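Hi U.,

Before I forget, here's the chain from the pilot set. I'm dumping it here mostly so it's searchable later in email.
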Amino acid sequence: MHRAYYKNSISNFINEDGNSILGKLSFNHANRQLEDQQKNAWIKQIEILKEQLNGFLGQIYFEFAIPRMGKRVDNIVIIDGSIFVIEFKVGSDKYETHNQTQVLDYTLDLKNFHEGSHNARLIPILVATNGTDQECDRKSVLAHTTVVKSNKNNLSRFLTLFTSNTFIKLDYLSWENSIYKPTPTIVEAAQALYKGHNVKEISRSDSGAINLSKTASCLNRIIEDSKANYKKTVCFVTGVPGAGKTLAGLNIANQRMKADQNEHAVFLSGNGPLVEVLCEALARDLVETSKQKSASITKDKAKRETSAFIQNIHHFRDEYLKHDIEPTEKVVVFDEAQRAWNKKQVSSFMKRKKGIDNFDMSEPEFLIDVMDRHQDWCVVICLIGGGQEINTGEAGLEEWIKPFHSKYRDWDVHYSHLITDSLSYIKSFEQKTWLKNNAVSEEELHLSVSVRSFRSEKLSGFVHELLDLNTEKTKELYREIKNDFPILITRDLTEAKKWLRKRAKGSERKGLIASSGARRLRALGIDVKNEISAPNWFLNDKEDIRSSDFLEEVATEFDIQGLEIDWACLAWGANFYLKNNEWQYQSFKGTKWLNINQEVTKEYLKNTYRVLLTRARQGMIIYIPRGSKIDYTRPNGFYDETWSYFVSLGIEQL
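Structure:
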């Protein structure tokens, strides 16, 4: 297992010829076209470290992989029981904030995802080689709220500061070989894949990665077969909640795009904010990477490039509605395919928005009809999820299967075996029988292992029991997860914001979230009707007032579904509250609350809170406001029993 380009004991490193070390670094560098800038940086690092490490015993690593971020930290130095995470800025005389954040992120990444580092003593150090001498707050550095600021002359002083009076010895061999289980956010995953990293590098190095890789191999085999034998094929991929269906889809679209650009593989999603955030993140990353390679690219050009890879399904639909032509895309991945619209919803939309009367196809049938225009071959990959339907008129898997059953019989159909073996996907006995007799069942098209929140895979179970009012089971699950995934409740929004600011470290994101129907939170400064820009909210830095980190703008379920933040404050609305131990469902119209009576609409609202309660990766605080004596739309009865329920579960109060 070679996680570093170079590793050695400190004494052997000091004695080894500098050119020999440089040769090993160059040989292991992934990009053989080594740039002079990188080469010169290594030469300087070797020179400084040989001088500053003199007299220390331990282990040194160069270019140690941080898989989740698709990056490498300049150096790891292990002395006794201390692990120093060192990032060099050769030639710099400033300790830039973004560079401090970078080394802090590397440190937190090791702490959270690398098994050998979970309980280790990690010290982040930024070396600006020409920087001025800076004092260091030892306690803050060890708490990972700040970093050591060092220069080329005083690194050894800080190494001594953190290793004196420590008697723990670290077994560096077991440390470097311990399991790394990264769970990247979908934004980080898309960036890493687009840069050319393999899914194995950025997913958990246990069964989760094996699962994703097997699914990718199965899909690639089907695509190659369709291409070689001029077939039109559809694949239905399923997965347990949090299994990484979207990651699998991005991975296959990216692999096909890299394998053969003429396939024009594309990842399509009806989740507008997800598409906007991913495209913006990829474009920003491409601009930054191009700058570093001295081949700058404009933001507009970067956006055009990245939007060829990820698109809004509605733009794709509208394009081929206008033009009755063969699509350029040969491989199309539909994310959350079960959320495509049924015939009634599409017909209504076409009449209202497009002026088309009597449109007689569901969205799945129309999209298949578009791909059927190909004269030779094509592959449609449908990623099927469940349990988070929050919009009316969503078709479900049945609408995707119908067209092949009746009209497009020359297509090959490959499906996850769970579709026929489980009750969760299709209820029609006739459809199940048709699939068994006419299609190919593939075990590899089911993602059976969750790669969700590294803090706690039990969170979704906790949320499920909480919403079903199973008090004892919820208490039990809370006790199991509270140390790994802190959940608090408060009635003070200011305190909730303070808690988030204290918890978030490095570039970890924090934010306010609420239901789009929680209209009366406006009286408390949380306006869910105020539209946000999802890319600004998810990607901009903490000084930007539009950023989630500024804790001013609130994201609703429509902004955040399919995306995550590290630390969340969920503001609980009066649209979903407890009365006599039963959930009450209401919507705000004009100046008053109206009861929701339709069962399907109630289910959508409950799922809204399910989505909101599962958006945090590391922990959350739930803000349940107090009622008002002067505002008849916010009586105590809309909040107090809900608060009491959370208190009865033993959830910590702030």
